[in-house]
Amino acid sequence: MRYLPFLISILLLSACDEPLPPVKTLQSLELQMDTLSLQAKNDSAEVFFNFYIEDLQVKGEDSLHLAINQKIQRHLLEGNLSFAENINSYQGLYDSIRTEYLRLSESDFAPVSAWDLSQSVTIALNEEGLFSYHSSHSAYTGGAHPNTFGGSQLIRLRDGADLNLDSLINPAYTNDLLRLAESLFRKEYQLAETGSLNEHGFWFEEDQFQLPEVFTFDREGLHFHYNPYEIGPYAMGHLFVDIPYIYLLDFLKPEYQLTNISEKNPES
After folding, report:
1. Phi, psi of 75 (to 5 degrees)
2. Beta-strand pair 161-162/147-156
3. Residue 242 falls within a domain, yes or no?
4. Residues 97, 49 contacting (CB under 8 angstroms)
5. Mean pLDDT of successive 10-residue stretches along the chain, which has 268 residues
6. What residues contact residue 13 under an 8 Å CB cut-off, 6+ apart?
7. Which of these, 233, 125, 231, 124, lies nearest to 182 by C-alpha position?
8. What pLDDT does residue 260 have?
9. Gap between the Cα atoms of 151 and 137, Å rounded
10. Kind and range of the H or E run holding 136
11. How many domains does one find in the chain?
12. What region holds the Deacetylase PdaC domain (predicted)?
């Protein structure tokens, strides 16, 4: 028995010398894209509402995967037109619009054509601990044209946090990035390098260029999306400005710089 404390000490020392198992950081998501297609018909079997949804689902049963999936589902649902509050499912969204159409049909403001709603999703990035996607939403409930809207999310996978542009960019270079984006925007829409933007029909506040909240991030760079009416009339449609990744190297925080990116100048 007098050797027992000595043996315990050896075992403890051996255990301390063993390397701890590495912490596995989530690098990408396993995804499933389902589609939901519904039609509402009247008593004459005529379709009065078409409903089409691309439903993005994150696979995984642990708390982090479930939280990320819930975050994405909520964000996508909120990007759609709805006639009810606290919609928490696509079936509920469908029911709310169908109910509104039927209500109006019994009023003095009966719809004169069929309604429709659609949602599509495009994955921009799903690697190196980041997940970025863009969603397109369209709804027609009468009038001259459908309403269309683009949405996006960028999620840090290690903790499920939403990232905005300020999260990605070194704050010391925020103004430099804005000037670069304006230069690329002017070039894209064939505007003079300087001078008023609003004289060309834009609606920038105080005639100062600003970036939109909707953007995706991928190996090609940053892609910004202005929705109709955001910086101009509906006739201008959706407007875009892209910043190639090679231009971002000085702006991105080190933790968000992607690996194995070609440094070829996009203008070469």
Report:
1. -65, -45
2. antiparallel
3. yes
4. yes
5. 40 41 73 97 96 97 96 96 90 96 95 97 98 98 94 97 97 96 98 97 97 98 97 96 96 94 62
6. none
7. 231
8. 81
9. 8
10. strand 130-140
11. 2
12. 62-148
**Cα–Cα distance between 114 and 139 in angstroms, integer?**
11
> CATH number of the domain that 184 lies in?
3.90.640.20
User: What is the extent of the structural domain holding 234?
Assistant: 169-256
**pTM score, whole prediction:** 0.87
Contacts of range 22-29, beta carbons closer than 8 Å, 24 or more positions apart: 25/129, 25/157, 25/158, 26/64, 26/129, 26/157, 26/158, 27/127, 27/128, 27/129, 27/157, 28/126, 28/127, 28/128, 28/131, 28/157, 29/58, 29/59, 29/60, 29/65, 29/68, 29/126, 29/131, 29/157
Q: Which two tokens stand for residue 83?
A: 């006639």
Residue 64 belongs to a domain? yes
The two three-digit tokens of residue 230, written as one number = 């955001």
3-class secondary structure, 170: coil
Task: Name the token pair of 91.
Answer: 């079936």
Provide DSSP, 198-225. Answer: GGGT---GGG-----S-EEEETTEEEEE
Stretch (H or E) spanning 150: strand 147-156
Task: Show the 3-state SS of 73-124.
Answer: HHHHHHCCCCCCCCCCCHHHHHHHHHHHHHHHHCCCCCCCCCEEEEEEEEEE
- Both structure tokens of 191: 């505007």
| Token reading at 57 | 């689902």
